[in-house]
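Quick one, probably user error.
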């Protein structure tokens, strides 16, 4: 029984292994950031977990592939912003105040990303379009 629990637990860890999670953990563990930024990192960890749950419980079961892809691309853009911000802060390109403000905006965007309802507006993709090749069913 313990072996089953361990393998199930190990699979769960793989799902939670993300770039965003790594950055948020690094921010929270950093001695160079104020406690308000550590708090933002905690919210980011929560938002990242909520986003993963949303994909598994809402996105995959309820959205067509193109719409889900659009949504995941927008989430990837937020992750890119997060990584760039953390790197810029680490290299001294962003001061603490600007870092905190930009981190707050990214965390809020991730929180909104996973809380958006799925409705008729998201029934099909507005960005990606399927291109049918010769002989494809229309």
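Nope, works fine. Designed sequence:
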């Amino acid at each position: 029984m313990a072996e089953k629990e361990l393998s199930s637990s190990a699979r769960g860890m793989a799902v939670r292994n993300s770039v965003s999670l790594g950055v948020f953990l690094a921010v929270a563990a950093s001695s160079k950031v104020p406690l308000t930024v550590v708090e933002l990192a905690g919210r980011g960890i929560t938002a990242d977990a909520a986003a993963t749950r949303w994909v598994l419980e809402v996105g995959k079961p309820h959205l067509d592939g193109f719409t889900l892809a659009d949504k995941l691309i927008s989430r990837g853009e937020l992750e890119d912003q997060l990584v760039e911000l953390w790197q810029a802060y680490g290299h001294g390109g962003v001061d603490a105040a600007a870092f905190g403000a930009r981190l707050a905006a990214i965390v809020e965007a991730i929180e909104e990303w996973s809380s958006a309802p799925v409705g008729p507006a998201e029934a099909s993709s507005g960005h990606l379009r399927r291109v049918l090749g010769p002989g494809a069913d229309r």
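Residues 35-62 form the longest helix (28 residues).
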